[in-house]
Specification:
By secondary structure, the protein is mainly alpha-helical. The protein folds into two domains: 144 residues, Cytochrome Bc1 Complex, Chain D, domain 2 (Orthogonal Bundle); 165 residues, Orthogonal Bundle (Cytochrome Bc1 Complex, Chain D, domain 2), CATH 1.10.760. It has 20 helices and two strands. The structure holds heme C (2 copies).
Length: 408
């Protein structure tokens, strides 16, 4: 389609320059072919289906159903008051609007929106998990989040009649009820000395059975989370109207000027915020790390490689040789100090505060950071300082707001 337009344009161009320009104008289309191809690459239409070879249940409707029940179930916590949805609230784009997360304890990181999370390559701001299902296991045991011991979780789900039946339909028979009832309460591989002792006292076979059910619950939760897709925005609608040759006014001149800045190599945004989710899925230092406190990706390289629930581990459905992400991951700590995962910019206008630590309250503050941050100015980041006039800043902010979901 694009080739056809370009070709027609080329033919017309060889006849008369002005008629080509007129054709562009008639189509409400101020872009050169290379600008237009960059813009199209950001459209939601280009989002492929989410995949994960380490989770064979990802697209299984029964797994999605079980996962959605687990996601909203507050019993999956030490105090019976915390579910995934406590922090990933559907009405807040599956985020919480807080600076840093709050549940059983206070966290140090900002809660990301889950819309589009299934398309990520690495999970958490520092990417310390390599799959969505393995990610789901972490908050369940995290003392500040659900804080539920692994045996308590397995017992709860495998004894509850409804869950047990759904679990069995998906994963085959769980251990007999009498065996499960005999598992001790409050045992987990990391926690208090008492909890770890109780975990160690289990037989290998018991630990294997508990870990298997733990991983399977993660896989069902991931199946549900992978249904949380970003929806079309004014930006996407603009792209599809231009593509259809319509004379569109969906974006006003300020927003179009902002889009132009966003794709301009001088502002560098596209170096990192690329593709239909506006992220290159990579880790970068943009001067937000805190030495000695939070060094981002650099701190977790071994953790993700030696995680027993990673793609290489016993509970993964992927052949080991297909775990190329782990195999080829960047392991040079020095280059990853203060590096965080580039976040998606879809719905960004609705998900303040910003950055891994929620340190910026508004999008204007984020742009000020790109313009003034000490580490960026001093050349200690993966980008050069950007400079924007106040009119340009207004335009870029207006463009970012066109990435918010259009309410149906
Ligand atoms: C106490 C609030 C809280 C609870 C409860 C919670 N999360 Fe999160 N979630 C967060 C925070 C904060 C992060 C980012 C943490 C980090 O990067 O270190 C996060 C990150 C994630 C991510 C990674 C997204 C990405 O793109 O990197 C996913 C997926 C996710 N959570 C799913 C879940 C699921 C599933 C549950 C329930 C089993 C859950 N969360 C429970 C606060 C919470
Ligand atoms: C070198 C890569 C890189 C470039 C260039 C870059 N960003 Fe970012 N961006 C990031 C990373 C990494 C983060 C997360 C940092 C953190 O959490 O500490 C981020 C965060 C953001 C956020 C906050 C999103 C959120 O949910 O917290 C916005 C908004 C943003 N960038 C917009 C832009 C714009 C606009 C440009 C161009 C002017 C730009 N970025 C250029 C990598 C980049």
């Amino acid at each position: 389609m694009r080739t056809a337009v370009a070709l027609t344009c080329f033919l017309i161009l060889s006849l008369s320059l002005s008629s080509c320009a007129e054709q562009d104008k008639a189509a409400g289309h101020p872009w050169t072919p290379s600008e237009w191809s960059l813009i199209q690459s950001l459209s939601l239409e280009n989002l492929p289906a989410a995949t994960d070879s380490s989770n064979r249940y990802l697209n299984n409707p029964q797994a999605i159903q079980l996962g959605s029940e687990l996601f909203f179930d507050k019993r999956l916590s030490a105090n019976g008051q915390v579910s995934c949805a406590s922090c990933h609230q559907p009405e807040k784009f599956f985020s919480d609007g807080l600076t840093t997360a709050q549940a059983i304890g206070s966290g140090t990181r900002n809660t990301p929106s889950l819309l589009g999370a299934a398309w990520n390559q690495w999970f958490f701001w520092d990417g310390r998990k390599d799959s969505l299902w393995s990610q789901a296991l972490a908050p369940l045991e995290d003392p500040k989040e659900h804080n539920i011991a692994r045996t308590d979780l397995a017992k709860l789900v495998l004894i509850d009649a409804d869950y047990r039946q759904k679990y069995q339909a998906l994963f085959g028979s769980p251990p007999p009820l009498a065996d499960i009832q005999a598992w001790p309460v409050d045992a987990r591989p990391s926690g208090s000395i008492e909890q770890m002792k109780t975990w160690k006292a289990l037989s290998d076979q018991q630990r294997k059975a508990i870990d298997t059910s733990f991983a399977n619950l993660g896989k069902s939760i991931a199946a549900y989370v992978s249904t949380l897709k970003p929806v079309s925005t004014r930006f996407d609608q603009y792209v599809s109207e231009v593509k259809a040759g319509k004379n569109t006014h969906l974006l006003n001149n300020t927003e179009l000027a902002g889009l132009r800045l966003f794709i301009d190599p001088k502002q560098q945004c596209l170096n990192c915020h690329s593709g239909p989710l506006f992220t290159n899925q990579s880790f970068h230092s943009i001067g937000t790390g805190e030495m000695g406190k939070d060094t981002g990706r650099a701190a977790i390289i071994d953790q993700v490689r030696f995680d027993r629930f990673n793609c290489w581990g016993d509970f993964s459905d992927a052949p080991k040789e297909s775990c190329t992400k782990l195999q080829y991951m960047q392991r040079n700590r020095h280059q990853l100090i203060g590096a965080y995962k580039t976040p998606s910019l879809r719905n960004v206008g609705n998900t303040a505060p910003y950055f891994h630590n929620g340190s910026k309250l508004s999008l204007a503050d984020v742009l000020d950071h790109y313009m003034n941050a000490k580490d960026i100015q001093a050349g200690r980041a993966d980008l050069k300082p950007i400079s924007l006039t106040s009119t340009e800043k207004t335009a870029l902010l207006a463009f970012l707001q066109t990435l918010n979901a259009v309410q149906p």
